[in-house]
């Protein structure tokens, strides 16, 4: 397996890194502090077609694959993991529309998403149910030629210019997936909710109240929610791993840059062996996470799934990111403890990234299941 990036991929990596450092980084702390969505910044990404990295060129996208997606998410997350998370989460709707929507829906929505003119939200989690879809209470019933949706979704990311929602709800035939235009009556914006990390991607709850949907809002077939969900599952897990690598690398790079200038007696901080060993180990772990992410991306492009390797990548990358961000804060000492510095933001983004997109525990279960099969007598 060739793990080297092509010249085109390296050029993309350099372009995204330069944009992140010169444009995104300047407002990252402020947007995180204020918990606001950068509409103009998102549209600037759209001008470069990065939100549409896997959208075919006929719909205005880049026509790239999972590896290009990982490259973009990692480089953006080096300075702003909220924006990296937004790029990754969008692919849930992108893949759903590409794979299950009508031709008219693809022609209408995909160019809006690729260009940054609009965003999309995903409604799965509810107050009393998490990732287990069968526990959800949201329902959709057939009425006339369409559907009527009711229920409340929590932990939904709501930027100001959302136009569509990918919503999962119980129907008589099982859990189903729906594509809901935000102009539909019965869809209020919801109530904001504070969160400790990834604050630049605001979160809210959304209540659907007798929300009437056309027949073609059902994606795939009734009861086909898992088909829709798993179409993007491994791709977004690859993106989550890339985001974690970006967080860890960004924090460590900034800590090293400061430590090289900080004198302690006759030495700078990076002269001390204890510091050098910590940096060396973290660099190796982050590179391992990056290479696992690339491997998962190549596998996803080749066969459309990467269950084991994407779980491995996210497990290694998220753990390395958490350790890298706490070490970065320790290395910078008092300097890194102030809110005008990015280190606390990096650390909280890393911690949240160990929970969202697959907790560390779920990842370990996924890997064990792939290697050992299901347990014969599973514990609660």
Commentary on this structure:
This protein is α+β, with helices and mostly antiparallel strands and 380 residues long. The chain folds into three domains: 7-119, Butyryl-Coa Dehydrogenase, subunit A, domain 1; 120-223, Butyryl-CoA Dehydrogenase, subunit A, domain 2; 226-372, Butyryl-CoA Dehydrogenase, subunit A, domain 3. It has ten helices and ten strands. The chain has helices at 7-34, 39-47, 66-77, 81-100, 103-114, 225-259, 273-303, 307-332, 343-353, 360-372, and strands spanning 119-123, 139-143, 146-157, 162-171, 174-181, 191-193, 203-213, 218-219, 263-264, 267-268. The strands form three sheets. The chain has a four-stranded mixed sheet. A four-stranded antiparallel sheet has the order 2-3-7-6, with no helix packed on it. It has a two-stranded antiparallel ribbon with strand order 9-10. Helix 3 (66-77) crosses helix 6, helix 4 (81-100) packs antiparallel against helix 5 (103-114) and helix 6 runs antiparallel to helix 7. The radius of gyration is 21 Å and the shape is globular. The model has no long low-confidence stretch (mean pLDDT 92).
């Amino acid at each position: 397996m060739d793990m080297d990036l092509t010249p085109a991929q390296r050029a993309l990596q350099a372009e995204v890194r330069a944009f992140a450092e010169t444009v995104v980084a300047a407002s990252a702390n402020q947007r995180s502090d204020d918990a606001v969505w950068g509409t103009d910044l998102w549209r600037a990404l759209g001008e470069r077609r990065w939100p549409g990295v896997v959208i075919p060129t006929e719909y205005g996208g880049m026509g790239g694959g999972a590896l290009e997606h990982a490259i973009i998410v990692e480089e953006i997350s080096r300075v702003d993991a909220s924006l990296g998370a937004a790029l990754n989460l969008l692919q849930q709707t992108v893949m759903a529309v590409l794979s299950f929507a009508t031709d008219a829906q693809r022609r209408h929505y995909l160019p809006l998403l690729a260009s940054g003119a609009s965003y999309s939200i995903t409604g799965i989690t509810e107050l009393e149910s998490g990732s287990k879809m069968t526990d959800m209470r949201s329902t959709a019933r057939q009425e006339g030629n369409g559907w009527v949706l009711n229920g409340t979704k929590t932990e939904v990311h709501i930027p100001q210019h959302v136009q569509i929602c990918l919503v999962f709800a119980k129907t008589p035939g099982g859990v189903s997936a729906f594509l809901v235009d935000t102009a539909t009556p019965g869809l209020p914006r919801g109530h904001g909710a504070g969160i400790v990390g990834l604050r630049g991607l605001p979160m809210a709850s959304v209540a659907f109240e007798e929300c009437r949907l056309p027949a073609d809002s059902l994606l795939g077939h009734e009861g086909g929610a898992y088909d829709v969900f798993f179409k993007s599952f491994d791709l977004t897990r690859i993106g989550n791993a890339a985001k974690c690598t970006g967080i860890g690398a960004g924090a460590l790079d900034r800590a090293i840059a400061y430590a090289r200038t900080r004198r302690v007696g006759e030495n700078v901080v990076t002269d001390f062996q204890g510091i050098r060993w910590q940096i060396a180990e973290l660099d190796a772990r982050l590179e391992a996470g990056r290479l696992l992410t690339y491997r998962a991306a190549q596998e996803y492009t080749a066969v459309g799934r990467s269950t084991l390797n994407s779980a491995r990548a996210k497990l290694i990358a998220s753990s390395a990111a958490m350790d890298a961000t706490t070490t970065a804060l320790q290395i910078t000492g008092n300097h890194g403890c102030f809110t005008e510095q990015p280190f606390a933001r990096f650390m909280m983004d890393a911690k949240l990234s160990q929970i969202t997109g697959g907790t560390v525990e779920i990842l370990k279960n996924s890997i064990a299941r792939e290697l050992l099969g299901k347990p014969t007598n599973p514990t609660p």
